[in-house]
Amino acid sequence: MPDIKLENLTKRWGDVxxxxxxxxxxxDRSFTCLLGPSGCGKTTTLRMIAGLEEPTRGRISNGDKLxxxxxxxxxxxxxKRDVGLIFQSYAxxxxxxxxxxxxxxxxxxxxxxxxxxxxxREVAGWMQIDEYLQRYPSELSGGQQQRVALARSLAPRPNCxxxxxxxxxxxAKLRMxxxxxxxxxxxxxxxxxxxxxxxxxxxxxxxxTVMVMKEGKLEQCDEPLKLYKYPNNLFVADFVGSPSINxxxxxxxxxxxxxxxxxxxxxxxxxxxxxxxxxxxxxxxVVVGVRCEDILISSxxxxxxxxxxxSNLPTGSDTFVRLRHExxxxxxxxxxxxxxxxxxEINVSFRPGRVLLFDGETGKRISDGTSLVNFQIAx
Length: 379
Prior knowledge:
Elements: E1 4-13, E2 16-26, E3 31-35, H1 42-50, E4 57-62, E5 65-69, E6 74-75, E7 83-86, H2 98-108, H3 113-126, H4 142-154, E8 160-164, H5 172-189, E9 192-197, H6 200-206, E10 209-214, E11 217-222, H7 224-229, H8 234-239, E12 246-255, E13 258-263, E14 266-271, E15 285-290, E16 295-297, E17 305-314, E18 319-325, E19 328-333, E20 345-350, E21 355-359, E22 365-377
Parallel strand pairs: 3-9, 3-10, 7-8, 8-9
Antiparallel strand pairs: 1-2, 1-4, 4-5, 5-6, 10-11, 12-13, 12-15, 13-14, 14-22, 15-21, 16-20, 17-18, 17-20, 18-19, 21-22
Helix pairs in contact: 2-3, 2-4, 3-4
């Protein structure tokens, strides 16, 4: 399937703007995640692509095929858009067997009985549900029902599969298993997948492209790791990542070859990265951003500053510590899943090249990755 292109797409309900002049391109054969908080417009966008929701204005095209255009009064029905759709609820027919549920869409396409039999068994094999074909949905676990719903959507071989938070009703282990399955299916079928989620872990672990939305607008479109390392703005930086990025409000005291930023009672001297930096002015309000894994604990080499361990947050495989200095709190990830006694004083520094700088007024990133060259208490 060619790229899916949305142009000036808007959806209003009265005075409420769910999607606001959205322009984006979903690459052919990509696994694209629409990521954002509840109410950001991601599900509405998916439903407009599917043809289940009519936009207020704009255009939607699948390659050269125009499927919606407000100016022309054109809106193709969902069955003419060659997409499969999986909902948050599995939406299985309770009175039909697994075989009948999977075969339903094929019967609507008037396929022969032998073709239906072959196709159902093929997708059932993909989803490892061969032994459940004669069971009813009520006889299956949540994970098995989700596999049936996925098999039913795959059976007609759509060019694009649209998924609206399909794993949200599963427990943590099943979600992990299904993420693996979805990546495998994408690799084997080479189809375009558009996946809606508010779970950043799902987006970053599965997608080839992540599109972050806020209040009906696209904030950033990028590869998952680039999105994480180089967020366009404070919203993306804070939303993507768990625990959230450490953000320190400050003001530029001096901005030449080395930027000196005062954050509370700290003076941070930051060496500009050799690429992608925007000039800053003395007195400019900024926000310094540091990921928890980029805070170096017990650094013996300057620059560093002493902080107190406020609390430990072990997760089993990792341990996060909350660090405190006066009114400043930071969250750091320990290199080993260990515990540092509360109240201990440790030296803290930042990983070179991994300190981000944002404009305090606009929220836009103004540095791709600076290095801390000096760390001291303001006099």
